[in-house]
Amino acid sequence: MLSKPLRAMSDEPYVRRPKGATDGIIRRRRIQKDKEEMKLRHSAKSVFNPQGKIPELFVLSGILSNDANWQLESAKYIRELLKSEWSFSLNEIYPGILLFFVEFLNKDDFPQLQVEAAEVLTMVTAGSSEDTKLVIDHGVVPLFVKLFNSPNKDVCEKAVWLLGNIASDSPMSRDIVLNHGVLNHLLELMDKVSEIKILSKATWVLSALCQGTPKPPFEQVKPAYSLLQRLIYLDDEEVLRNAFLSLCYISDDGTIDKIQPLIEAEVFPRIVELLSYPSRAVVAPAVHVIRNLVAVDKRQAQCVIDHGGLLHLLQILSRDYIMKSIKKDACFIISNIAAGTHDQIQAVIDANLIGPLVYLLQAAEFDLKKEAASVIFHVITRGTPEHIRSVVLTGCILPMCDLLGSRDLDMVRMCLLSIDRIFRTGELEKKAMPGGRNIYAQLIFEAGGLEKIGNMEFNDNPEISEEAVKISDTYDHSDEEVD
Questions:
Q1: How confident is the model at residue 110 (pLDDT cuts 50, 70, 90)?
Q2: How far apart are CA 221 and CA 227, in angstroms?
Q3: Which one, 166, 212, 377, 463, has least CB within 10 Å?
Q4: CA–CA separation, 313 vs 133, rounded Å?
Q5: For position 481, what pLDDT does the model report?
Q6: How many CA atoms lie within 13 A of 10 on its CB side?
C-alpha cells in the first residue's frame, strides 16, 4: 500500500506540459475551457470568502481575466485558502477551476504564475485519490514533465513534487506517470542538477515510482539503478533514505536479476559503511537492502564479512534504541552467514555476536526472538563442537529450553534440533575423555529441558513428537546421570 504524501506547503510544488499536442486536442481543450469558464462564472456569482475579507467574486474574476498579475494574486489567494482548509476540495467549491490552473502552467514567460499554479495543483494531489485523478484527467502529467526543463529552479522543483504526489497516490497513478516516460526525464534532470533541494525531491519521486503492489515492471524501473548507485555516495539524509528505499522496493522480489546490477556496481562497501549512519531513517532501508542481497545470492554473505559488516551489525544488535525491524533484518543477515561455512560461523563468533543474540533470545519480543533463534540454530546445527561450546558458554541452553513451550512450531523445532545437537556433542566429548561427563546434558536438565521434551512426545504435530521421542530415546540409552 502506497502512503499518501503530505500536503505541499508554500515553499514546495511542481508542473509540466506535453511536447506536441495535435490541433484536434488543442481545439477540444479550448471547447472544454469555454464550458468550464461558464461554470466558474456561474459559481462566482454567489460564492464569497467566509472570512469576509476579499470577495471571492474578485478572486475568481482574476482567474478568468487576461491580466497576468491579477491571475497571480488570485492564484496566491486560492493557494492560501487551500493551506488553511485541509478538507477543502477546490473543484467541488469552484467547478471547472482546475482547468485554468493547468493553463497557467503554459505561462513560460511568467514563471511566478507557473509556480503558484503548480503549488495549487500539488496541494490538490495531496488530498483525496479522487482529486488526484481529476488532476490527472486534466492532462497535467506531460505538462509537468515538460517543466523539468524550466530554467526557473522553483518551477522545476514544483514539477518534481507534483509528479511525486501523483505517483505515490496509487499503483494505477504510478503507472500513468511511468507510462509517460517520466522516469527517464527524471534521471536526466537528476544527472544535471546539483541543488540538494531538487535532488532530494527527485529521489523521493524515484522511490514513489519503484514502490507499490503490484510492483511496477522491472524493465521500467531498471534504468534507475545507475543513478541510485551514485546517489548513495552523497551525504544528505533525505537523498540517502529515498535512494535506499528505491533499492529496497526494486530488490524485494528476491530474484537474481533484480540484484545483479547492484552486485556488479560494487557498491557493497558503501552500503555496509552506511549501517552506522547516525539516522535510523537511512540505516533501516540500508540494512534491508543487504538483507535482500544475502537472501538471493549466498556469495554476498561473505561480502558482509569482508567489508566489516559484522561490526556494524553488532552495534545494531547492542543498542536498545534501534528499531525492532532493523534488528530483525540484522538477525536475518547474520543467520544467512551462519548457514554458510565453518569459517563464516567462526567469523560470527569472533565478532562477539552470540552474546547479544542470546540476550534477544531471552528478552526480546517473540518475532525478534525467532530471528535470533534462527542464528543460534544455524551455528549449533552446522557448526563444529568448538562452535557449539562457544554458544553454550554464552548461555543459550536456558532460553532455548524455555522456548520449547512456545506455540510456534518453527520455533519449537529449531530449539529441539539445537538441544539435540548440543546433547549429542556432549556425548561425543564425554566418550573422548575417560571418566568424563556430558556437562551439556546436566545444563539441559537444570533448565527443565528434559521434562519439556518428554511432554512433547505427545504433541499433536507428528514431526515435533517424533523428534521429542528420538531425543528422549537418545538420552535414555546414554549412561549419563543427572543430579
A1: very high
A2: 11
A3: 463
A4: 44
A5: 54
A6: 9
pLDDT at 86 (0 to 100): 57
Tens-digit pLDDT profile for residues 427-474: 999 988 887 899 999 999 999 999 999 999 998 999 999 999 998 888
> Under a CB-based contact definition with an 8 Å cutoff, are residues 468 and 454 in contact?
yes
The residue whose grid cell reads 512450531 is 409
Q: What is the rounded radius of gyration, in angstroms, for the C-alpha atoms of the chain? A: 31
Question: Distance (Å, rounded) from C-alpha 8 to C-alpha 34?
Answer: 29
Q: What is the dihedral of CA 371, 373, 377, 379, to 10 degrees?
A: 80
Instruction: Name the pTM for this structure.
Output: 0.84
- DSSP string of 118-162? HHHHHHHHTS-HHHHHHHHHTTHHHHHHHHTT-S-HHHHHHHHHH
Residue 25 has pLDDT above 50, yes or no: no
Please tell me what DSSP assigns to residue 394: T
pLDDT exceeding 70 applies to what percent of the chain? 86
Helix (H/G/I), strand (E/B), else coil: 211: coil
Contacts with 134 (C-beta within 8 Å, 6 or more apart), sequence order: 91, 98, 124
Q: Report d(CA 324, CA 328) in Å as an integer.
A: 6
> To which H or E segment does residue 324 belong?
helix 324-338
> All 3 cell numbers of residue 309?
559488516
- Would you say residue 29 has pLDDT above 90? no
Q: Give the mean model confidence (pLDDT) for residues 127-132.
A: 90
What cell numbers appear for 105 in the block? 502552467
At position 1, the amino acid (one-letter code) is M
Is the distance from CB of 105 to CB of 140 less than 8 angstroms? yes
Say if residue 226's pLDDT is above 70: yes
Count helices and strands in the chain by DSSP H and E runs: 30, 0
194, pLDDT greater than 90: no
Give the single-character DSSP code of 351.
T
Whether the link from the prior residue into 55 is cis, omega within 30° of 0, is no
Lowest mean pLDDT among 2-6, 110-114, 403-407: 2-6
pLDDT at 122 > cutoff 70: yes
Under DSSP, is residue 192 helix (H, G, I), strand (E, B) or coil?
helix
pLDDT, residue 239, reads: 97
* Long-range pairs, 263-271, Cβ under 8 A, ≥24: 263/293, 263/297, 263/300, 265/225, 265/229, 267/229, 267/232, 268/293, 268/300, 268/303, 268/307, 269/307, 270/232, 270/233, 271/232
Alpha helices for 321-395 (secondary structure H)? 324-338, 342-350, 354-363, 366-382, 385-393
- List b or e across 239-253, with b for residues whose CB sees 16 or more CB atoms inside 10 angstroms: bbbbbbbbbbbbbbe
